[in-house]
Amino acid sequence: MRKFMFILVSILIAGTVLASNPLNLYGRDAEGRNGVVAAAKPEASEVGIRILELGGNAVDAAVATAFALGVLEPNASGIGGGGFMIIKLAEMEEAVVIDFRETAPEATSPTFFNLDNSNRPVNNESLIGGKAVGVPGEVAGLLYALENFGTMSRAEIIQPAIEWAERGIPVTANLFSIINDNYEKLILMENGADLYFLFGGIPYEVGEAIILQDLADTLRLIVEKGESAIYSGEIAEKIVAEVQKRGGVMTLDDLSNYEVKVRKPVEGTYRGFTILSVPPASSGGTHVIELLNILENFDLKSLGDNTAETLHIWSEAMKLVFADRSKYMADTDFVEVPLEGLTSKEYAKTLSERIDPHSLLNDVEAGNPWPFESGSTTHLSVMDKDGNMVAMTKSINSFFGSGVVVPGTGILLNNHMDDFVKAPGSANSVEPGKRPLSSMSPTLVLDHEGRPYMTIGAPGGTRIITTVAQTISNVIDHGMTIQQAILAPRVFRTETGPLSIEGRISINAYKKLIEMGHEISIHDDYDPYFGGVHAVLFNRDIGILFGGADPRRDGQAVAY
Hints:
The chain is α+β, with helices and mostly antiparallel strands. It is built from 20 helices and 23 strands. It has a seven-stranded antiparallel sheet. It has a seven-stranded antiparallel sheet with strand order 9-4-3-13-12-2-23, with helices on one face. Helix 15 packs across helix 20 (507-515).
């Protein structure tokens, strides 16, 4: 019966998606003189702009947008997850990073997961069910940012999210497809099916609305009680009970002991522009800077946009960066990481010298940065006319996370325990209280005089690092507008495997890459595999803020 129902649902979905409008590549951007919010849902961007119009600052707008995204894009983020935020307000001399990444429960260990002979977790237990759930940090992180850097009340900031949860979230073709792709996960965890399907397991159709009343009630409790609404009391007890019922080990102490971390950004430059991004437990910022540092040794402008020669350099640089990421990166509260070496121009120069413009690097190993020491996700970007800048990336990891929905709360829990290395012996192996390695890369860019220029970031797993770097390069090296830079074809690879490219790469570049020896994996023309960039760029010469959003997701920039 279940198999028949799944086939029926698939047929219904296929018909709806085919009947829907073709991909809208344009009309995603926005421009204004006062402020811009670029997020993965147009309704969420509108929430942020409304906050700016009411006199809130960029942090107020970012936090309101984030709570709204957790409702409007429940497959990608929410109060059962975590993330990172980088803030630089006009009056701040230095930017700050708010780290609200999930942590491993205290009852975990390097041997927490049951592994098969290939060191893979049995029954997908790092992805589905209670063992996959890290202690969520989103509510603590968003409220910390609001209380320390915002100006408005919890009620003002969270009310728009409550209204969307009660009104019902619009089912787009994109969300419809994602629900279909995760049908078995949501059915397996029956509480998820109760939220995201009609009676009998039939999905909502495109254009309908999914009402999330339990989530609205939980958000109201957060307005009333703050973070204690989630980290102690009745909801905390429900979270723990459901995680343990599904095979996990989270306790009330794990929730009550959760701490937001305030960190210094990692910093670098690219062709005179300052790059500020997030440090570990995210690997993203460090390796965005490392990748750009390597590329700075090549004249990408002369090599041309998306030519075989340029793509070859990108491919080889990505190999080197991901080899370093695999060896060195982990939570710096537990492991010593050579951050200064990894972001060093001198170290990047030694790596660039390993790249031959005409042949491939094989069997790539990590470099040695130590001598250079002296010491399913979403993204939103906010900037206003006063130079206040916020970039935030947050996630529940896979679409619909662990599949664990806490009854009576509307909270869908993350599966970020999967971001640990599952076997002992790695810098990123599981340890109690440790934050799993992330690729989230919310980033701020300052101009040659240190003034606000760009806020940028993306979802997309490990593709975040390369996607953010490529978009920055498209603007700086190739003179693209922010929306052109977002629309441009993307490529990705790690230290092993094929070079993944979007189908819009020219046939001439494709043929030449094959002749050079590259193994190519061709993706769709605009493939969500490569993430969804949301960014704001300030053109100081004309005094206008330009927001860009990605058609690979449901993104939309809004300005005023």
